[in-house]
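Design review, sub-item: ligand-bound model
Attendees: FS, YL, KQ
YL presented the inputs for the NAP complex:
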Amino acid sequence: MKAIMIPTPGGPDALLWADVSEPTPGPDEVVIDIRASAVNRADLLQRQGHYPPPAGASPYPGLECAGVIGAVGTGVTGWSVGEPVCALLSGGGYAEQVAVPAGQLLPVPAGVELIEAAALPEVACTVWSNVVRLARLGAGETLLVHGGGSGIGTFAVQLGAALGATVLATARAGKHDRLRELGATTVIDYTGQDFVEATMAATDGRGADVILDIVGGSYLGRNVAALATGGRLVVIGMQGGRRGELDLGALLAKRASVAATALRSRPAAEKAAIVRGVREEVWPLIVSGAIRPVVDRRLPMARAAEAHRIVESGAHFGKVLLTVD
Ligand SMILES: NC(=O)c1ccc[n+]([C@@H]2O[C@H](COP(=O)([O-])OP(=O)(O)OC[C@H]3O[C@@H](n4cnc5c(N)ncnc54)[C@H](OP(=O)(O)O)[C@@H]3O)[C@@H](O)[C@H]2O)c1
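KQ shared the predicted structure:
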């Protein structure tokens, strides 16, 4: 089969579509014949040599895919050859085939095209596990999503709105109309506006009950300032650095909390539990049309370098898909 290799880490041209050996399924795994994968920010870091795959994971990039089951391990029940699926991966999505633990498979939601289903697993699992399972966002609460136009952001805005929360999102101005269409009631241009002031103005001075943050260090203090009493800040990205100053007095006065999580490095059993939760609680919202995959564009897998350049520039809205003929 072919896969995207990274013989020497570096810029987008480090990605090489080359012949490699095919995977075989372990006892609890299936092999998927991949029709599409999607670009995640983490793939850019892996390409640059800053984010090596966890032990045991495929060396090729790609944290999610959609395709058809091509082979089933001896211990797998409930899935069969020929079934269309999408999957959360620890790596290996930029390829024609991948082996994945059966616990990380999801059916393609009714009404979603097979290729587009590749846009769902990573964002659904990340957003649900942080916003719902960890931060316990409730109906009537306020959710602030940083990076609303990202793959993660476009999903978080929709999930928040579908759960009955009021959703605020930060993004460059050119993405605001599309964020409103997805359910954001307040959009904040972080390049010219102070998001703390904008959040306070939009919430009558209360602040956000939950903040999903992809910026990290440089936003830490201001994120705490933007939290409501009892608020929960969840950091999932460090685009603004890994260090910041935390005013514990401010946190204490608000009885607020700060958490940070990563999905890729979790053990398979934890990933399987998240996938089960997503199937039970999020998939029905996709089937009903309350949440839809947001796809910026599709490119053939062999043009992964071009896809990385687009995502690196931030020009995209939602997900960039990589397809296999
Ligand atoms: N911890 C986890 O388990 C986990 C899992 C998945 C993803 N993530 C993280 O989540 C983030 C999003 O991932 P993705 O793949 O969806 O990324 P993406 O599609 O590449 O989007 C990144 C976006 O960040 C926005 N941005 C940059 N600086 C910003 C700022 N200061 N304020 C607000 N927005 C800003 C940009 O939007 P504009 O065009 O509006 O500037 C850019 O489009 C990444 O940091 C990624 O590492 C974490």
